[in-house]
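ingest -> validate -> predict -> emit
validate: passed (alphabet ok, no gaps, 335 aa)
predict: started
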Amino acid sequence: MNLNPLSSIIDGISTFVSNRQKLKQAKVDGEISVIKAESDMKVSISKSKMKMAEDGQFQDYNLDRIAMEDMKNSWFDELLLISFLLPIFKEYYSHGFAGFNNIPSWYFGLVIGMVVVKYGMRGMLKDFMAGKYKGVIPNIPTSTMNYTLPTKLQSVSKEIIHTTLTAIQRSYGITETTNIPHICKEVCAALGNGINNCADTFIYRIAKAETGAGTIIDRTPKSAGAGPFQHDKRPFYDNQSRYEDQHVKKCISHLGINPKTMKWEDLLMDIEKGAIATRLHFKPIEDEIPKDIVGQAQYWKRWYNTSAGAGSVKHFLEMNDFDMSLYREDMEVEF
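emit:
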């Protein structure tokens, strides 16, 4: 037993310093282990990328990822792909799998290309181009890199594109995010909501009366009335020629649209321009827009649908969920 106090103190200090050094060393060793693990992981990732690059997969992966991210919120791509698949469905429905022999090989190549781009399967495309699907799908050209599509494809593509665009026009360009009542409110906030503060409600009811607010398919998208509000071509341009400067300036200032430069074709799928044209249609009329729905139905018939139109007060009310037990024939407008 060491009874020398000084010696005990020195031993204690030595032990403390030794333990501190061990802790520091352990910390350093831990940091080295972490750095080594991170380094090993990076090396592993690099080797994987190198392997993918050697196999030609890395760029395909990036392109597939970018393509899927770009198209994940796009409904048009889905519609276009479905349009291209219709002939396959038709042949299968008519003749079963045997009907696939009637489909030209270039068409199969085109559909496979669309599927590859849409769903990110460039690896499958390489297998396809290498002929690995030969025998699975009949008459697939293996030299697709230099394959020239026949002239017939051009006419087929034009027809499909025309059909797709027509389908979009028949739905007035409306998507699941389109809010027609909100658009009507914004337009009337800019151009005036009338003394009775109901112009926004009224022009929305017009859209409901004309097309069920865009829910009734337009069977004449390039003739007769355009868009959910069904503006006829000649009356639209007649009204446009009389737009007052004060209203034009308000429209440009608040909505960023010049109604003087709008074209009738714009109204086919641009809901906002259709609402602008509808609100401006009633500006020259001295009689104010009525607040009650029956009065609005009569106002619509007199000044919008007119005596030349086939609509009626009854139709307007029915399309706007009016209690038809309250309807009377004397509500109709006489000209």
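The radius of gyration is 35 Å.
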